[in-house]
Write a structure and sequence with these properties.
Blueprint: H1 30-45, H2 67-71, E1 74-84, E2 87-96, E3 101-106, H3 112-119, E4 123-125, E5 134-136, H4 137-160, E6 165-171, H5 173-187, E7 192-197, H6 205-214, E8 217-221, E9 242-245, E10 258-261, E11 283-284, E12 286-287, H7 295-318, H8 333-337, E13 358-364, H9 371-376, E14 381-386, H10 403-413, E15 421-426, H11 442-448, E16 450-452, H12 479-489, E17 500-501, E18 507-510, H13 511-515, H14 519-531, H15 536-544, H16 547-550, E19 556-557, H17 561-569
Helix pairs in contact: 4-5, 10-14
């Protein structure tokens, strides 16, 4: 599957530099909706009683509530249905051979005892999950009741089905247990995707932050009451991001019906609705809580939730004090604009580091809107650096050398816990040098080790710099400065006669290649950037034409455009010459775009960015 569409990323992404931050409402991509639809069906299947004693059987649902699951080749590997002090913890571990995934699905609230567990608003120590973390005592206890058996089954399944993706999902109470269980499984070394629907808050701010850093896909619906519980005044927090369905019950959900809400404890989305609804809790793309439910059961749940309301009302009238209220931070600029991995506190440094699988490292400025990374790439971890604000969660020691200072700072700070795959990117959604509407270079990247995300040769190939002979030019060109810079950066290497690679310093690299150099090399490169008397643009340009050498490629690294598009993006039927392919990229007349891009072209004409290329 492609890494995603940046709104068909930008079938015009190759041409833009700076477009308005919000050209369209923040809809999700079709691939994101497809994933949520599939895992909503898996969560719904956990409600079906025929899947709770069915080892070796296919996963099925009464009625037509999980057609995509039933049409796949599935096998239930084990089931759990544990009655404990915290209610009933039920669900299954299954394998989906069609989609090559192992799924752990937790059932939501099914009985009165489950809802009594939900009514308990006590926080308890969860430092086994993360430093400073506290979790809802009932949700944590419900996970711990089945943790050993599920962890054992997952280990066995991963051994049998090597290379399969692990997914954890659940609705309502099942979503809460899934969130805690996914955290524990990740701490045990498993790379997984988490999808929850109508999940209540599961713990304190430290746990919400840890969940956010690990990555999660948390869906809410309109004014569903359950994600509002337990209340923030009791010390509970929600992770980010939130995928908020904005339409009513029993309405087909489209990409434009889902908004991406960024920020831990955001008061937008579901939390911003004035009136809560019980019925909204049952509709998550499908009728998620088991399909044909009787009115009697629905009425019973409404009565229980009304009891919750009464308990809360008594608490707030007689016991709650404004000064003790848990309020989200007023510093919403980075929460809303930048989705970055929080910097570990000092006391967290001693904890074992859980290595991520794939991460985007983004060089941005505080005026940039980088929320589109969260929207279109929810399954990637993101480290978003803000170079011109020293108070940002992630920043650089010196704002010099353009994106290079960010890239080097990330590698140095994370050298001992680098993810398997890294994409180093610029912040803007529309940039003139973006080459293709897709970013899925991961399969090729894992084999190749290093890739330039730009395939076209225009600017940089076949040769851009002749270090031994280049003289002065009036434009910003690194040629005349490259000879001395190369000697300072790579003192043990002979200066090459020619340097060539496609421009613009957006690249992918795997962990093994980064670690092929010692950390001291990257520190040396950053120290050079800090000390050089060259201007910001020239020092950045020199690094731009050095990354491929740093990561082990020859001085001239110009794979054919045809091979690059095929290997990197899966576009293997293009008509190509050596350095370009028809219909893929045209150098724009200007580096800044007209107002209204991509819907407005260079001459003010209307254009449709959903297909074809813009007029050059």
């Amino acid at each position: 599957m492609h890494l995603g569409h940046l709104w068909h990323l930008v079938a015009a992404a190759a041409f833009a530099v700076a477009a308005p931050a919000r050209l369209v409402p923040r809809d999700v991509s079709s691939s994101v909706l497809e994933q949520f639809t599939l895992y909503a069906q898996w969560a719904a299947a956990a409600y079906c009683s025929n899947n709770l004693d069915s080892t070796g059987d296919a996963i099925t649902c009464a009625g037509d509530y999980c057609p995509e699951v039933e049409s796949s080749k599935t096998i239930s590997l084990s089931e759990f249905n544990d009655t404990n002090d915290f209610g009933d913890t039920a669900g299954f571990v299954a394998v989906d051979e069609t989609n090559k995934q192992i799924v752990v699905a937790f059932r939501g609230s099914k009985s009165i005892s489950n809802w009594i567990a939900d009514l308990d608003f006590d926080l308890t120590d969860a430092s086994d999950l993360c430093d400073g973390c506290e979790a809802h005592s009932g949700f944590l206890g419900a996970w711990e009741a089945v943790a050993d058996s599920i962890t054992s089954q997952v280990a066995s399944a991963k051994q049998t089905y090597s290379g399969y993706t692990l997914v954890v999902t659940g609705h309502s109470l099942g979503g809460a247990i899934a969130a805690i269980g996914a955290t524990a499984l990740r701490n045990a070394g498993y790379d997984l995707n988490l999808y929850t629907f109508g999940q209540p808050r599961v713990g304190n701010l430290a746990l919400a932050t840890y969940l956010t850093e690990q990555g999660n896909n948390r869906m809410t619906h309109l004014n569903d009451i359950v994600p509002r519980l337990p209340p923030m005044d009791f010390g509970f927090s929600h992770s980010s991001p939130e995928y908020w369905i904005t339409t009513g019950d029993d309405v087909t959900v489209t990409t434009s019906d889902i908004e991406v809400i960024d920020g831990i404890d955001s008061t937008a989305g579901n939390a911003g609705e004035l009136i809560e609804s019980v019925d909204a809790h049952a509709w998550y793309i499908i009728d998620i809580d088991g399909g044909p439910q009787s009115p009697r059961r629905r009425n019973r749940i409404k009565s229980i939730l009304l009891t919750i309301f009464i308990v809360l009302a008594i608490y707030f009238i007689f016991f709650a004090h404004p000064e003790s209220s848990h309020k989200p931070s007023t510093k919403t600029d980075y929460a809303q604009l930048h989705k970055a991995t929080p910097t570990p506190k000092a006391d967290e440094q001693a904890r074992p580091v859980i290595r991520k699988h794939k991460e985007m490292i983004v060089a941005s400025m505080k005026s940039d809107d980088t929320s589109w990374f969260t929207e279109y790439f929810p399954d990637w971890s993101r480290s978003i650096y803000v170079v011109d604000d020293k108070t940002a969660p992630l920043t650089v020691p010196y704002n010099k050398g353009r994106e290079s200072m960010v890239y080097l700072t990330y590698i140095i700070d994370n050298y001992d816990s680098l993810p398997d795959v890294m994409l180093f990117l610029h912040s803007q959604r529309f940039q003139w040098h973006n080459d293709d509407p897709y970013y899925d270079g991961v399969p090729y990247l894992q084999k190749k080790g290093y890739v330039n995300l730009r395939c076209v040769w225009t600017l940089g190939c076949p040769v851009e710099i002749h270090p031994l002979s280049d003289g002065h030019r009036d434009d910003v060109h690194a040629g005349e400065y490259f000879l001395n810079a190369f000697k300072e950066l790579f003192p043990s290497y002979p200066v090459p006669e020619e340097i060539g690679t496609s421009c613009c310093a957006q690249l992918g690299v795997n962990r093994t290649v980064v670690l092929s150099r010692p950390k001291s090399d990257y520190e040396h490169f950053r120290n050079w950037l800090a000390a050089t008397t060259l201007t910001d643009d020239l020092s950045g340009r020199i690094m731009e034409y050095s990354w491929h050498i740093i990561f082990g490629q020859k001085a001239v690294y110009c794979p054919s455009a045809e091979a690059c598009y095929c290997n990197l993006y899966g576009l293997c039927d293009l008509k190509c010459s050596e350095g370009t392919c028809a219909g893929r990229y045209v150098l724009p007349p200007f580096s800044s775009l007209p107002k209204g891009w991509p819907y407005v072209g260079w001459d003010g004409q209307a254009q449709n960015p959903s297909y074809g290329l813009p007029e050059s």
